[in-house]
Amino acid sequence: MTSTQAPNATPPAPGTPSPGMRPLGSTGLRVAPLVLGSNVFGWTIDERTSFELLDAFVDAGFNAIDTADIYSVWAAGNRGGESEGIIGRWLRARPGMRERVLVFTKVGGDFRDGRRGLSAAWIVRAAEDSLARLQTDRIDLYQAHWPDPGTPLGETLGAFGNLMSAGKVRAIGCSNMLAVQVEASLKAARALGLPGYQTLQPEYNLCTRTGFEGGLRRLAVREGLGVLAHSGLARGFLTGKYRSRADLDKSTRGADLARFLGGRGLRILGALDQVADRHGAQPGEVALAWLLTREGVTAPIASATSRAQLASLVRAARLELSGPDLRLLEQASGTAWDAVGLGGLRARLAGTFRRLAFALGR
Length: 362
Known about the structure:
The protein has 15 helices and ten strands. By secondary structure, the chain is an alpha/beta fold.
């Protein structure tokens, strides 16, 4: 495919209200205040529905799509790459669309067949595979999906740098990393004269705040990193669909959502209900609008499986919350320990030695 350097995105068709664009850190890219997550493509929705949602998303004036090479390896019969493949076929079927959208993908996740991690050899191979599936000559934002303590930071960053020099990647970022890991990567980049991460993709929502608020946010603000918050709806809990054990039993996500269903979680839902009633909105729309008010956040990532859900995401990006709205949500959700802080304590302790080893560059 012939290389055409894309601008940030072509404006939507005349007459379409366009959301305000935000700079994505120091990348030079500008994104609308909502990024479409595509982990559901080829998993819970088929290719035709995925195409319809992508069309509607762009028609609404939005311009960035987030995926990963492993999406959706966990689904029965899938091998990974399904989401990227659908996006690539959508781009090919719509001439000129590649110049209107930004494509973000990730490397390092587990394909469950030995392909994983952030070694230079794997990053180069994975990038070529992603480019082929996406049917494009460039990745606008290439992200390290998970930390890889077994690979030296210089090796990983050097591989990303080579891809940038070759014009195959425009910017790089990282996902699911602790502040100490991101800071170690940035220090290594400076010491070795290599490009450093320009964006973060942390889990962040009204239920899960401690992982981002604090050291990671301070680092992002200090370093001018773009922040794309994933899991903004807490895996669906903040839509208000799950308010009792009986509700959880009806969902395949029930076991994962149980950690949110407690006194604090119900207080958050109650506050969302009140704010939603004030605006004639839905609780999930308020939860995403709240993220757009948070210091350091560029845009949340959210997925949809129907036109109705996508319309709700669009409304969320345009919803403006008042001071009283924000105070009510803060009173309900503010805490020293959130659902991840308590429910994930065992996992955090189990990973202590791994994280220390990463920080020391082992």
